Amino acid sequence: MTTVLYDERVTELNNAKIAGEHLWLNPTDLSAATGWKLETEGLCKGDTCVRTQGAWVDAEGRVDVSAFAQYMGQPVTREASLDVWAFGESVNARRDSLHSLQAPEFTLPDLDGKMHSLSDYRGKKVFLFSWGSY
Amino acid sequence: MWQAIYEDLKDSGLEIIAVAFDTGGKAAVEASIRAEGCHERPDVLARLMGWSADLWARQAPPTYPCLIDEGHQLAETYGMVNVPQAVWIDEEGRMVRPPESAGTIDMVRHMNRETFEIADEPVVAGMAARSAYVEALKDWVKNGAASPYVLSADEARRRLRGLSEDEVLAANHVRLGRHLYAKGALEAAKHHFREASRLHPESWNYRRQSMMLDPESVGQLNAGPDFWAAVDTYSHLPYYPQADLSQA
What we know:
- The complex is a heterodimer.
- Chain A is α+β, with helices and mostly antiparallel strands.
- Chain A has a domain at 2-93.
- Chain A contains three helices and 13 strands.
- Chain A is globular, with a radius of gyration of 18 Å.
- The two termini of chain A are 33 Å apart.
- Chain B is mostly helical.
- Helices cover 48% and strands 10% of the residues of chain B.
- Strand 13 of chain A pairs antiparallel with strand 3 of chain B, so a sheet runs across the interface.
């Protein structure tokens, strides 16, 4: 079984094809795991479409997710022994979001398991500080 | 101590949110809040942290939210390289001071490694830094955008971290490592935390967490030989770069 970490998604898949450093997914799995859909215009998510490059789609209609991520500038990290793949955010995407100076939204549990989002505190000044037990 | 500051400022519109980066989750965080080891040595800790006697005397359990970030998600999205670091976020959700040390100085390099004792001179410097930082925070709560400690957009952008290829790749290794840890694949998880640390040596968060993933060490304060070896190896990298409070 293959596990794909993408954005906040964790998806377990049974039909992935692994070839060397490349992960190939059929369009159904691709959509489930990444949110990108294979359409006639290319790979699309929301309003964004990226024209499909020749080698991205194989004869069986699978998409080379690794090559697509590389094209998009996303880091790809893999634990081959357990077949787990992590796809991260590109430097450009990070820069665009951080340079807006809009504080990135998050939702995290407190010690009682209650969820808190940064946006719950809109209208107040927030002093957000990190610490660790280690 | 943040609790005392919170009590003083919450009616003036300040909210405090604490986020613990801890792959060990709730158990590790609760163990740390109990922190028996620290309470045995309160004098040492007060000197290490640079809190004024007044604030130190007002220690109380936090009533502000204490959140757990097992995946170091905020370290990644905000570019935080150590703990404690803090971000100031205004009423519209805009960062007016990006992550920086929350008033701490590089005390770890002035510490006796067996007793944790520190000479008077760095302690005085540490208290001055902490106190200046707390005063700056109070100024912001009182004066908002007119506070001299609110950075211009250009200056705030200049101070952002976490935007290199290596840092983004390191964050991805951490994400994978966290997933593997949760699945019980401890050795594989450690490998990815170490990779993250290698790619992003400025991140003490990654380095320290990578040393502390073993179940028996979860929730312990890491001041063992490996930690001090890292402090020596990375002596060119500030452990706590001091917050730059110059008025932009």
